[in-house]
Structure formats: C-alpha cells, structure tokens
Write a structure and sequence with these properties.
The chain is of the alpha+beta class. The protein has 7 helices and 6 strands. It folds into 2 domains: 2-40, no CATH class; 56-150, RRM (RNA recognition motif) domain (Alpha-Beta Plaits), CATH 3.30.70. The protein is 37% helix and 15% strand. The strands form 2 sheets. It has a 4-stranded antiparallel sheet with strand order 2-3-1-6. The protein has a two-stranded antiparallel sheet with strand order 4-5.
Length: 155
C-alpha cells in the first residue's frame, strides 16, 4: 500500500527511507534546513583518477604464488593467458614473474602482465577481463606504463 501511495505521489522510495515521507514528498530537500542537502548521506569523495591507457595490462588475482612455484601449473597459466589475450588482439609479450628460489622479493610476483601490439587490443582485453571471475577470484585489470614494463619495473 505504501509503495502505491509513493508511486501515486511520484515520490522516490529511497528518499522516503532516508528523509521520511514528508521531506521526500516535498522534493527531498525542501523540508531540510537551508544549505543542507544529501551530500552528507552519500560518499562525495573524489573518484580515483582515470588510468592512462597503454598497450600493457596488469592482471591481479589470477594466479597465486604457490601455483607459480609448480612448473606444470605455471606453463598452464601462461598458455591460458596467451589464449585468452589473443582473443582481443596480437600479443607481443606475456610476463608472469615467479617467486625466487631463495625467497627474495620479485617485483610483480603473482601478477600477469600482457603487452599488445596496439592500444585498441589492450582496451578490448581490459574491458573483457576486468572484474571477470577466474576460479574463485575476481580479476583486477589495469593499464600500466609501457616504458616501465619494458624496463621491468613491474610493481
């Protein structure tokens, strides 16, 4: 019944739940004190800056360090990444840094880096792979600077 009344009054149900029926039916902010709006209710933090598109992608949450220690699993992941990346364009290079045998830190270990021949291919791959489920994980895919990738600056 209440939803039917809100629809009849063209009231936003979200405003009703936040402000109460009187303020919501008055347009949401009309019943508030001057200068008070919904900005305090919503997260108004500035969004993260846009990534600079490049021909190189970094994928996170694809492979574990433990999987990289096993040669067979490493080869399987390399092949899977190559096949998946080639659906979007020509792959120039795939790099999946492996853990050092002595346990020293290896930059980019546990991440997958894919370099494409053209920016458009990297863009298509990013759209297809970002937030995609890979096993139990959700893949995070971001552009990285091609110069840094070529210099092996992988973090």
């Amino acid at each position: 019944m209440m939803i039917q009344q809100m629809l009849a009054q063209k009231t936003n149900p979200m405003l009703v739940s936040m402000l109460g029926p009187t303020a919501a039916s008055m347009g949401g902010t009309a019943a508030m004190a001057p200068g008070v709006g919904l900005s305090g209710v919503f997260n108004t933090a500035a969004p993260e800056p846009e990534e600079e598109p490049s021909k190189v992608l970094r994928l996170e949450n694809v492979v574990t360090v433990e999987e990289l220690k096993d040669n067979d699993e490493y080869e399987e992941v390399m092949e899977d990444m190559k096949l998946e990346a080639e659906k979007h364009g020509t792959v120039v290079k795939i790099s999946i840094p492996r853990p050092a045998a002595d346990g020293t830190a290896v930059p980019g270990c546990g991440k997958v880096f894919i370099q494409f021949d053209f920016l458009e291919a990297a863009s298509r791959a990013k759209k297809a792979l970002d937030r995609r489920k890979f096993g139990e994980n959700v893949v995070k895919c971001i552009y990285i600077d091609e110069t840094k990738f070529l210099a092996n600056e992988l973090e």
